[in-house]
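Let us practice reading a record.
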Amino acid sequence: MMPGDRRKQWLIPGVLLLFLAGCNPFTGAEPMMEEYLSRLARVLDTSVAPPPSDLPTATTLPKRRDRVLHIPELELGMLDFLSLYGCELQYVVGERNSVMGRVMQPINRLRYEIRFIQSAKRCVRQIDDEELQATLEQAIESKHQTLPLAVWNATWGTEEIEKLFTLSKGYYPVAVEQNLLTDLALDLDQLNQMVKALNNQQLDVPLNDLGQIHQRWQAQFLAGQVINSARLLIATLNSGTDTLKTRLEERPLCLNGKPNNQSNIVQSFFFKVYIGEVQPYMSGVSRARDSLIRGFSRLAEQQKAVMPDTFEQWYDRHLSEETSESLWKELDQAMMRHTRHWQDLLAQCGLRPGA
């Protein structure tokens, strides 16, 4: 045998394995759902439901100009500013009035607002001019009132969060790297604690990790992918429920409740494909929902007092689980209906799961 022939012998099995892996419909969300609906119709001997193409509605985050809140500026007169010489506040305000200070990113603007309050409080204690003290105390109170605006901008007003929630990166992976989900979930817990502290005017909360959190948002698409997968699951499960309903309205799967060959095939399909393939993916999407969507929902709920109206409409659909428009309520209902119809069908043969 020629050396080249031996190499071909080694190559053929490897290529065949790659080909077979590429043909496995259960490695991707969309082909998995199409395969499930196709096989479901086949084992139930009903017409094949078309693959879900008309998914429930979802939209991207509102444009940044509609998310970023305007923070009123304080105007300290020039004489007042000069008379603050010796106080740290002079330098804080000076940085804000610089060229770079006028175009601060949201995270730096939040740091500035906190530094202003802290510096102004120290300055009040250092000066003797009562009129200037009153001006500073008024400025401090104003900054306390507008601090939630800066907190909002440093979370929901950032560019980085748009990447995490983009809907252009497909579906949540069937085999996701768990470390990515865990890191994002830990970030959200930390961020929610920061926002809670700042809402309670606890200004000593460390913001050192906020920049890293933003960077991770910019590098991931998981939140948008989870939303896409919720839509795909809703459409698939509703279509599958229609197929099950059609079969339930026809002759019983089993006569006198006794299993037969077809019911054995149906039960095998139920456990092998629905329980073995589709349900683990549904569970993965549910875990991501618990880790990410609920974390972001809490982040938004903490800031409802300053939430823009355009954002509230997006929140009601994509984050909330309570509103009538909630995508997640729609998913829960689709899952419950589908499970109930499966139970009703298998009950015709005394094979109801859990019975």
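A brief commentary: Residues 27-66+160-355 form one domain.
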